């Protein structure tokens, strides 16, 4: 990210309208607010793909998102964040209340959390070394984005400032 800071700046800019409400969704579900940056590590907050959280169709439907020929709620930053918060809370419970392991479950699927604990025990360093490369990379991207977001100016990235009032209307 530091070699190409414009990539992260563009991600922060794309999320500007949604991040305050996404953060509120996380807080309301009892999820640490910084886990919102997992969406950046997953998708770069790109307008392409399966939305900010990169849910599979099955996982999206499992957490109440509509995905069909006409609508794909995975692409709705707020609805998908609500689903992500619920999923992360479940993973956190399965991971003996360890957020790092919950993020591993996020990437690999919740069935793998218990499997890895059985293989490696409660030593996270040993556990982490047994993870697939893609999962270790996601953990590294997530931690990097979170750290840079909190220290943007120190890394030559413009301030990460978000409006508390989104520039869109919600009709319920």
Quick summary:
The N and C termini lie far apart (38 Å). The protein has helices spanning 5-15, 19-28, 38-43, 57-62, 77-94, 99-108, 110-120, 124-129, 133-150.
Helix-strand blueprint:
Elements: H1 5-15, H2 19-28, H3 38-43, H4 57-62, H5 77-94, H6 99-108, H7 110-120, H8 124-129, H9 133-150
Helix pairs in contact: 2-5, 5-6, 6-7, 6-9
Biggest β-sheet description:
none
Number of helices: 9
Structural class: mainly alpha
CA radius of gyration = 16 Å
Distance N terminus to C terminus? 38 Å
Note poorly predicted spans.
Answer: none
List the secondary-structure elements in sequence, H or E: HHHHHHHHH
Instruction: State the total count of DSSP E strands.
Output: 0
Report helical residue fraction.
55-70%
Description:
It is a single chain. The protein is 56% helix and 0% strand. The protein has helices spanning 5-15, 19-28, 38-43, 57-62, 77-94, 99-108, 110-120, 124-129, 133-150. The mean pLDDT is 85.
Main attributes of the structure:
172 residues; globular; mainly alpha; 9 helices; 0% strand
């Amino acid at each position: 990210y530091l070699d190409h800071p414009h990539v992260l700046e563009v991600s922060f800019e794309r999320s500007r309208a949604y991040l305050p409400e996404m953060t509120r969704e996380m807080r309301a579900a009892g999820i640490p607010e910084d886990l919102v940056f997992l969406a950046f590590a997953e998708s770069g907050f790109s307008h392409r793909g399966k939305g900010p959280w990169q849910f599979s169709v099955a996982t999206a439907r499992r957490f109440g998102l509509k995905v069909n020929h006409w609508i794909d709620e995975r692409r709705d930053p707020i609805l998908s964040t609500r689903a992500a918060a619920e999923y992360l809370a479940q993973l956190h419970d399965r991971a003996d209340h360890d957020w790092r392991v919950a993020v591993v479950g996020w990437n690999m699927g919740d069935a793998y959390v218990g499997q890895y604990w059985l293989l490696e025990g409660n030593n996270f360093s040993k556990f982490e070394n047994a993870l697939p490369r893609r999962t270790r990379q996601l953990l590294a991207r997530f931690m990097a984005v979170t750290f840079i977001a909190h220290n943007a100016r120190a890394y030559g990235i413009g301030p990460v400032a978000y409006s508390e009032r989104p520039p869109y209307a919600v009709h319920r």
